Amino acid sequence: MHPRKLPFSRRWADRIPPDAVTGDTLIHTDLTPRNLLVHDGHAWVIDWTNPCIGAPWIPYALLIIRLIRAGHTPAAAEDVVSVAEAWQGATPYALDCFAAAAADLWRGWHQTIAAPHHLPLAEAAEAWSAHRAVG
After folding, report:
1. Is residue 3 part of a domain?
2. What residues contact 85, with CB distance under 8 A and at least 6 apart?
3. Residue 36 is part of which domain span?
4. Which of 12, 17, 33, 116 is at a distance of 20 to 30 A from 61, taking alpha carbons?
């Protein structure tokens, strides 16, 4: 375990079963367009303000929500991340739980904080959760 890093399962403890997101990987939990630096064919993830320890596929799940918000279908967004080795270790159970928890999180933030970006992200997370529930 990394010292002084909160387990993701504790951060989302009221939203998701811990066994769905437990892991020992240092993960970035704020993959926004402003936190990705792309130059000369390389990409860097910057601004590690809120890192956690958890399952290695979590950043990819967060990226799926951003891809859906950008116009991808949920299936297409999952296809984009499916090539990542870390993503391939995610179980359907874990992804289903995560998608539902993310939809709940973003909807709650939209209702309580109402920042302009919260509604589109809530809708994207809800679309992914609905896609996961059908599949």
Report:
1. no
2. none
3. 8-134
4. 116
Handedness of CA 75, 79, 48, 95 (dihedral sign): positive
Q: Is residue 36 part of a domain?
A: yes
**Is 61 contained in some domain?**
yes
Q: Does a structural domain hold residue 13?
A: yes
How many domains would you assign to the chain? 1
Between CA 35 and CA 25 the distance in angstroms is 19
Q: What is the pLDDT along the chain (135 residues), one digit of tens a residue?
A: 455 678 999 999 899 999 999 999 999 998 888 898 999 999 899 998 889 999 999 999 999 999 999 999 999 999 999 999 999 999 999 999 999 999 999 898 888 887 888 899 999 999 999 999 986
DSSP state of 34: G
Q: Which of 54, 57, 51 is nearest to 9 (CA)?
A: 54
